[in-house]
Design goal:
By secondary structure, this protein is of the alpha+beta class. It folds into two domains: about 150 residues, no CATH class; about 100 residues, no CATH class. Helices cover about 25% and strands about 45% of the residues. The strands form three sheets. Strands 1-3-4-6-13-12 form a six-stranded antiparallel sheet. A five-stranded antiparallel sheet has the order 7-8-9-10-11. It has a two-stranded antiparallel ribbon with strand order 2-5. The chain starts with a helix and ends with a helix.
Length: about 260
């Protein structure tokens, strides 16, 4: 989502003086939205070039390697290729992005295991976890609501499109630590929803109750669905989801409607 917003905001610089280093201007605009970028190339295709003055772009191709949308959040590979883009030039001159037609793009992302673990240890994730409360028993007492704290999250990318997540579950009442391990395969349903395949949950070295696994699976299905983005005017469909060694490969199609709230954000 953050990378899509960066792309949209960067279109402001693409419609710049005609024929004058348009590709470089677009790359500089995208770099300006990122915390850092190891390698970034942008190509803006227009035929004829004067279409830029009308707010039209035939195609934009972005190839990034080692991109940092924020500190400690590294994307190993990002490739984006858009269809034609038509923008309202008057709004652009006022600093606003208004699409005349839907924006469509194919996106390919590769995430490294080491980068994912670096992000899991970042302040953004640790702060998020600290703000959460977790219940694993009946809330007989009020203290149960904040009894457990998750720390030291880590991820392992396995063969066969399987992923293992592990963390320490600290019981602040009994002053005990439990190792929690979740391992599962993943499949994509109709391009829009991730499904857990033969999930396994271990808590403190023991297999978790089947009721907990079923609840986890149901919650995962309800949470990780791209249908939830459609209310913001964004349609996304997963074309590829695969674990290759220590890399996670994602390819998907994105369509942003002119009415999308992402444009105003």
């Amino acid at each position: 989502m953050e990378l899509i917003t960066i792309l949209l905001s960067s279109l402001l610089a693409i419609v710049s003086p005609v024929g004058f280093l348009v590709d470089q201007a677009a790359a500089d605009a995208i770099r300006g939205q990122l915390y850092d970028a190891e390698e970034l190339q942008v190509r803006v295709d227009n035929a004829p070039n004067f279409q830029l003055l009308r707010g039209k772009v035939d195609k934009v191709r972005i190839a990034g390697r080692g991109l940092y949308p924020r500190p400690q959040m590294r994307v190993a590979v990002l490739d984006i290729e858009t269809d034609s883009i038509s923008l309202d030039l008057g709004d652009l001159q006022q600093g606003d992005i208004t699409l005349k037609d839907p924006l469509q793009a194919a996106v390919h992302i590769v995430l490294d295991e080491a980068d994912l673990n670096g992000f899991l240890q970042s302040s953004a994730v640790t702060d998020f976890i600290e703000d959460q409360s977790f219940e694993y028993s009946n809330p007989v007492q009020e203290r149960d609501a904040s009894r457990y704290v998750i720390s030291n999250p880590a991820i392992d990318l396995l063969e066969g499109d399987r992923i293992r997540l592990q963390a320490d579950l600290e019981d602040q009442v009994l002053d005990e630590d439990l190792a929690v391990v979740l391992e599962s395969g993943f499949a994509v349903i109709e391009g829009r929803q991730l499904q857990l395949i033969t999930p396994q949950v271990m808590i403190g070295g023991e297999t978790a109750p089947s009721q907990l696994v079923e609840k986890l699976t149901k919650g995962f299905l309800e949470t990780f669905t791209l249908n939830r983005l459609e209310s913001s005017g964004l349609t996304a469909r997963v074309l590829e989801f695969g674990v290759d060694g220590e890399k996670l490969n994602l390819a998907f199609f994105v369509r942003v409607e002119p009415s999308s709230t992402l444009l105003s954000d």
